[in-house]
């Protein structure tokens, strides 16, 4: 499919790379991260949706430090949404998001605070901090020691605060 190479700018000053397939139906979707969502993006584009396939910070040709858990990456999705809001082929309020795995977690977090993200598909969201291990109740208790070490290590080495738990964030998204 034909696409445009695009650069979006995050609120913390990074340049992220992506591809944009123009909309034919007035609606567009941010898919995140690009490398995992190409098949989904093709299906959406075939149905007429505009699709912005966006690299995570620190991956591909995008600036920034990589973070495998995605902490702090909601700024990436917000930048993608802002870009889509400027597109003449995207009608106001018709922006959605699709995230896989860590992208799903970031999509939920972005939707909780960005009302311009009107619909979200979050496939494969998991645990990204010790809080989410505790949410699972007794089934998650054995994971708590490892999750606590991982949470502390990511917070220290990334300089990012521990993100809110996904169940709290999901409650802020619904209903939309």
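^ structure tokens above, recovered residues below v
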């Amino acid at each position: 499919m034909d696409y445009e190479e695009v650069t979006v700018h995050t609120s913390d000053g990074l340049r992220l790379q992506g591809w944009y397939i123009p909309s034919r139906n007035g609606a567009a979707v941010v898919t995140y991260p690009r490398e995992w969502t190409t098949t989904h993006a093709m299906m959406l584009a075939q149905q007429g949706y505009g699709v912005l396939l966006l690299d995570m910070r620190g991956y591909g040709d995008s600036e920034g430090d990589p973070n495998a858990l995605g902490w702090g990456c909601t700024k990436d999705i917000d930048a993608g949404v802002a870009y889509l809001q400027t597109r003449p082929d995207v009608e106001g309020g018709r922006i959605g998001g699709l995230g896989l795995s860590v992208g799903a977690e970031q999509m939920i977090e972005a939707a909780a605070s960005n009302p311009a993200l009107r619909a979200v598909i979050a496939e494969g969201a998991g645990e990204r901090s010790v809080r989410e291990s505790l949410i699972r109740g007794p089934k998650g208790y054995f994971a708590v020691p490892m999750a606590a070490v991982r949470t502390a290590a990511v917070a220290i080495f990334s300089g990012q605060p521990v993100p809110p738990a996904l169940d709290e964030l999901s409650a802020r998204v619904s209903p939309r």
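The helical segments are 34-46, 74-86, 102-113, 130-135, 144-158, 166-173.
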